[in-house]
Amino acid sequence: MPNTDSGGERAGKPPDKPQALAFVLFGSPGSGKGTQSKLLGQLLGIPQISTGDMLREHVRHGNAVGTAVEEKLKAGILVKDEVVNALVEQRLAESDTARGFILDGYPRTAAQAEKLCGMLAARGIPELVIHLVVDYNVIIARLTGRRQCPVCGTLYNLVSRAPKVSGACDLEGAKLIVREDDRESVIRERLEEYGHQTRPILDYFREKGKRIYEVDASHDPPEAVFRKIEVLIRER
Ligand code: ADP
């Protein structure tokens, strides 16, 4: 029997609402996936699941997973599929995902995409892929323009969120720094990985007949990009 009941609390209610969806926010590093998936999570009241955030959390805790992935994160190299797949599988087993969820930064390889499709098929949850399309030059400008205050952690961007005084934190006055994984050589590594391993997943999804919504996210501010996402979700 197909699993059409996405949550126990809905049992007995007429099927007036579509079932849970898995939103896959897809795009290059610097495309704004994190920002858009947070906004979408707030709008729909469903969790945003970022594999990058989950991995950084493990590094902060200094546990076995954190120790195993720390160097890869610093170098902008993809973490092993088994590690990431296991983290996502555990996360999707939590009850707050029953009404749907947003994936940010996953899947990033063909093996992850296959794993995801298997997990979703087993739960009867369809995916909706949103591809944030951004010009390469804009991506480079965004990523190389990222600066952080070493005292309070506030993030700036020389392109879109410049500090009031050049090179200094608005709050602390401290000299802004470039984060380790925002160094140019690492940025190049992250973009190459995206081109070789991640972008081809779009073809995999297309071949499997999955829906992919393309959103131009090059020049508009985040709120305007989000309005486009809202419209396509409403009209789909
Ligand atoms: P960005 O999209 O800017 O590269 P993320 O926060 O999504 O940033 O990811 C940071 C790092 O975490 C990646 O460079 C990679 O090392 C690791 N990572 C995140 N998600 C995955 C994934 N799905 N598979 C493998 N490694 C991942």
Beta-strand content estimate: 5-15%
Largest sheet: 5 strands, parallel
Structural class: alpha/beta
Query: Which CATH class of the domain at 21-134 and 197-235?
Result: Alpha Beta
CATH architecture of the domain at 21-134 and 197-235: 3-Layer(aba) Sandwich
Q: What is the name of the CATH superfamily of the domain at 21-134 and 197-235?
A: P-loop containing nucleotide triphosphate hydrolases
Poorly predicted runs of 5 or more residues: 1-11
Helix segment tally: 9
Mean pLDDT: 89
Q: What is the H/E string? A: EHEHHHEHEHEEHHEH
Distance between the termini: 26 Å
Helix content: 40-55%
Question: Which small-molecule ligands are present, each listed once?
Answer: adenosine-5'-diphosphate
Tell me the number of strands: 7
Radius of gyration, in Å, reads 19 Å
Structure characterization notes:
The chain is α/β, with parallel strands linked by helices and 236 residues long. The protein has a domain of 153 residues: 3-Layer(aba) Sandwich (Rossmann fold), CATH 3.40.50. 45% of the residues lie in helices and 13% in strands. The strands form two sheets. It has a five-stranded parallel sheet, sandwiched between helices. Strands 5-6 form a two-stranded antiparallel sheet. A hairpin with a 6-residue loop joins β5 and β6. α2 crosses α3. The radius of gyration is 19 Å and the shape is globular. It starts with 21 loop residues before the first strand and ends with a helix. The N terminus is likely disordered. The protein binds adenosine-5'-diphosphate. Adenosine-5'-diphosphate binds next to α2 and α3.
